[in-house]
Amino acid sequence: MVSQMQSDKLESPRQGFDTPRFDPDVLPPLSPALETVIRAETVTIRYGDFAAVRDVSLKIPDHHVTAIIGPSGCGKSTFLRAINRMNDFIPQMSISGSLLYRGENIYRTRCDPVDLRRRIGMVFQKPNPFPKTIFKNVAWGAAINGYRGNIDDLVEKSLRQAAIWDEVKDKLHQSAFALSGGQQQRLCIARAIALQPDVLLMDEPCSALDPIATALIEDLIDQLKKNFTVVLVTHNMQQAARVSNFTAFMYMGELIEFDKTDTIFTKPNKQRTQDYITGRFG
To answer: pTM for the complete prediction?
Structure first.
């Protein structure tokens, strides 16, 4: 019989986790009242020999918006995609350290990536609705995953949570491609939350949108944290300051600083953070 220790051996899709050299005292403290949902412990992500993310440790709290900022190529999107194992599809990707979702390491062999992605949904940079009706875009994922409730109610609830119901309620059976870019992005958010995830990852969800659509998405993000934990990658520092409760600043694959957003933008502890937010580089 395989021992419990053997069955709990950590494995990546392509390379086993190294035993993390982890000191919990190095993580930025959260209030005792805040429950940690995602915890990274010395996470390094490589594409072949290139380390896109290096020794990142942080804790993401429940029912808050955590923004990840930094210049292009700093590793913020790579780290975000690792949280629901979207990087598994990239050839020669390997990961070391530990990445835990509610205390369970998501790269253990017993973790089902498909089930993980139901619990940790994702919204991408550009709106990507299915070539289906508005209704089917929202209902499809829940239906194929065996949802047994009232699908009409689920679609309406999801569209309401995504703040788009009033705009589409009379055209649910029209093509999703008839919607504007901002509406399509909110539809994609509705599609993600229809699976009733615990965490919602958002990878620069406003970068392809105009200022009016961006403002609508930002208002929506503020509402979503009532029901979901939101992790937002953004290149827009003003957006991070407006919508997030916590902010992580990454540079050249490293986590430079992680703290409450007000602290990051008003009195950061690291000079590189200060230089970035004041526009001295970026």
So the answer is: 0.85
